[in-house]
Design brief:
heterodimer, A: 422 residues, alpha/beta, D-Maltodextrin-Binding Protein, domain 2, six-stranded mixed β-sheet, five-stranded mixed β-sheet, globular, B: 294 residues, mainly alpha, MetI-like fold, flat
């Protein structure tokens, strides 16, 4: 008797455990009152997440055929584990945010649907050519650009004035300024430290200023073993080797908090920093200037930003694409609100920039608009192997006391191998 | 009579299996099946996004001349060689100290030592990042007081690994100390009384009574901490992400990098299989070396 009693208890417990495991499966196929359900995955937080959620609600109310379901993820897990694992299980979302660093992987895998057929009449022409070209492969527009984030040099006006340092305009001036501004308590300049796509992103303009690039224009040959790369590596590495740029910062390296709380005198950061400067760090007098230029070089900055893509293998490509277009390719007020109120970035559409002209000339934004916007180059979409090799090279000149000339040869070979494999 | 006894035993055994069943099912579903599947994946070229392509043992061949991987494995060994003996000695030492304290003081000390273990590892890693901060960190402020220059700690290729080991020891010290302490409590007091009569106290008593009687516990701790040291991940991920310049990129981190950052899932699975074999062999060797002589 006793045995059977315990057996039944075990069996019940087991059923509960297994039941708990199996009930969580749902992949957005369910119909809701005849409506098609479209899943939308995203990695934004705070105000940006709220805006996207509101956008979804507005869309759901505006029509009765499609219901978009929003799901937000932790930014650290989103591109690394959540999204690829979902696609591996054929449970990928219908609409998803994609970072430039991962674009090539997804493009090669054929996961992003061609958005060309879904542009409203004339809408495509309103987008900036460079922005559309960046996401076009074999005449297919694989994702919708809706923001460009530019990079510049932020600085603490008081610290520069106290040290008698002019705002640096050249590489030599930047180095001299960083040296002079470094103290026991304050670092001269904050540059990204950890090996990731962001590190490369911030470094690229220093390479481009001299006319160099990682790979050739046709995308077939590695250009990494070149004097321009060596120079850009050495310049970048010197800040770390000489101790002007910290190897670790209390805030993340893209977070303007480093400058906002007085831990550093200068920081290379992007347009996204402006809203934090105006809200959290308004008591600090912060200035902004274009990135200093190499000798005889040309002013350059880099433009990045997330894009929206539709799942080519999803059941509802049309509905998903329609939602993307409604959000950012139709009424200019929606992308304008995103790029001006929610955060600060440049929209990818000319009509939106015109509509927001006043905002783009406000405060520090004017520096980006007047002095940097014309010098932007969209962030390149290199595959993960190449991003990795560039990151390794940078890490070596930053932390292993290596010289640029020591690392470019091996890296060049690795990049060429990765290109040949594609 | 005899038959009844057998029947009883059978029922007992069945009940035991009944109780084990949920665990066994869990292990099968979440451990054994994924392990076999990982081996299968390791024979494929797979980036998660496109269908798998069977390539036989190519991943293993590629691994054999992947310099970065073997460097990462080397770092894992370095971590293990520093971490395991340090943790072992420190927890044994503090357990002995605790054991000699009065009950009330011991209770408080024990709790204090165990506290770090109760903190989520990510949070303790974050706390230590503040302590290690080169400009504002309390450790450097202290070093300045005694006239030593500020150190880079996590930002230096030569110090980052040691800095992380200190944190991992800090987290696990209390737990291992508790296990030692519990076994020490089980050693009958008569042994020490007898030793005292023979004139063996203090270090001598520890050397000839306590330590030999802790053999089983020591083996357990050695094996478990060695396996743990091969799997260390979260603290490194939070504190350095494997940097600077890959100086803290241990085996598991390299596997993560290949799997989720480069999306070489097949290759990463092959690396995992090899890491599993390394840990397996190492544990066997350890068990063999420390097995009872008789």
């Amino acid at each position: 008797m006793k045995f059977w009693k315990s057996f039944v208890v075990m069996a019940m417990a087991l059923t509960l455990i297994l039941g708990g495991c199996s009930s969580s499966k749902s992949n957005g196929e369910a119909k809701d009152g005849g409506k098609v359900t479209v899943t939308f995955w995203d990695n934004h937080i705070d105000a940006e997440q709220k805006y996207l959620k509101d956008l979804v609600n507005e869309y759901n109310k505006s029509q009765d055929k499609v219901k978009v379901v929003y799901k937000g993820f932790n930014a650290n897990d989103y591109m690394t584990t959540k999204l690829p694992v979902a696609f591996a299980n054929n449970e990928g979302p219908d609409v998803f945010m994609i970072s430039p660093g991962d674009f090539t992987k997804y493009a090669n895998a054929g996961i992003m649907a061609d958005l060309n057929p879904y542009f409203p009449d004339g809408a495509k022409a309103d987008f900036q050519e460079a922005a559309i070209n960046a996401v076009t492969i074999d005449n297919k527009v694989l994702a919708l650009p809706f923001e460009s984030e530019l990079v510049g040099l932020y600085y603490n006006k008081k610290m520069l004035a106290d040290a008698g340092v002019e705002v640096p305009k050249t590489w030599d001036e930047l180095q001299a300024a960083a040296k002079k501004l470094t103290t026991d308590k304050v670092s001269g300049i904050v540059l990204p430290q950890e090996k990731d796509a962001y590190l490369n992103f911030i470094w690229y303009p220093f390479l481009w200023q001299q006319g160099g690039n990682v790979i050739s224009e046709d995308g077939k040959k590695s250009n990494f073993n070149s004097p321009e790369v060596v120079k850009a590596l050495d310049f970048w590495g010197s800040f770390f080797q000489k101790g002007y740029a910290p190897a670790k910062t209390p805030f993340g390296s893209s977070d303007i908090g480093n400058l906002g709380t007085g831990k550093t005198a200068m920081q290379v950061s992007g347009t996204w920093a402006i809203s934090a400067i105006e809200s959290k760090y308004s008591n600090m007098d912060i200035g902004l200037a274009p990135l200093p230029v190499s000798e005889g070089g040309q002013a350059k900055t880099v433009a990045g930003g997330w894009k929206l893509a539709a799942n080519a293998h999803g059941k509802h490509v049309k509905e998903a694409s329609d939602f993307i277009m409604w959000a950012f390719a139709e009424d200019p007020s929606r992308p304008l609100k995103w790029a001006t109120e929610v955060k600060f970035a440049y929209p990818a559409r000319n009509s939106v920039i015109e509509a927001g002209e006043e905002i783009y000339n406000k405060g520090l934004r004017k520096v980006f608009t007047d002095e940097m916007y014309d010098t932007l180059t969209p962030e390149p979409f290199y595959g993960p192997e190449i991003v990795d090799v560039v990151g390794d090279s940078l890490q070596k000149v930053m932390f292993s006391k290596a010289k640029g000339s020591d690392v470019v040869k091996e890296a060049d070979q690795k990049i060429q191998d990765a290109l040949d494999k594609q | 009579m005899k038959r009844r006894g057998n029947r009883k035993k059978r029922i007992e055994a069945l009940t035991a299996y009944g109780f084990l069943l949920p665990n066994l099912v869990g292990l099968t579903v979440f451990v054994f099946v994924p392990m076999v599947y990982a081996f299968y994946v390791s024979l494929n070229d797979w980036n998660l996004l496109t269908p798998k392509v069977f390539i036989g043992f190519d991943n293993y061949i590629q691994m054999s001349h992947d310099k970065d991987w073997w460097q990462a494995v080397g770092r894992t060994f370095k971590f293990t060689i520093i971490y395991v003996p340090s943790l072992f000695c420190l927890s044994l030492f503090f357990a002995a100290v605790c054991n000699s304290l009065s009950q009330r003081v011991e209770n408080v000390t024990r709790t204090l030592f165990l506290l770090p273990f109760a903190i989520t590892s990510v949070i303790s890693a974050a706390i230590w990042m503040f302590l290690y901060d080169p400009k504002d960190g309390i450790i450097n402020q202290f070093l300045n007081l005694v006239g030593i220059d500020a150190q880079q700690f996590l930002g230096s290729t030569s110090q980052a690994m040691i800095s992380i080991i200190v944190v991992v020891i800090w987290i696990n010290l209390g737990y291992n100390m508790m296990i030692f302490l519990a076994s020490m409590k089980e050693i009958p007091g008569e042994f020490y009384e007898a030793a005292k009569i023979d004139g063996a106290t203090g270090w001598k008593a520890f050397q000839h009574i306590t330590f030999p009687l802790l053999r089983e516990t020591s083996v357990f701790i050695l094996v478990v901490t060695t396996i743990g040291s091969f799997q260390v991940f979260d603290q490194i991920m939070v504190m350095t992400k494997g940097g600077p310049a890959n100086s803290t990129q241990v085996g598991v981190l390299y596997i993560y990098h290949q799997a989720f950052e480069v999306l070489n899932m097949g290759y990463a699975s092959a690396l995992s299989v090899v890491l599993f074999l390394i840990i397996f062999i190492l544990s066997l060797v350890q068990l063999r070396l420390t097995a009872k002589k008789d």
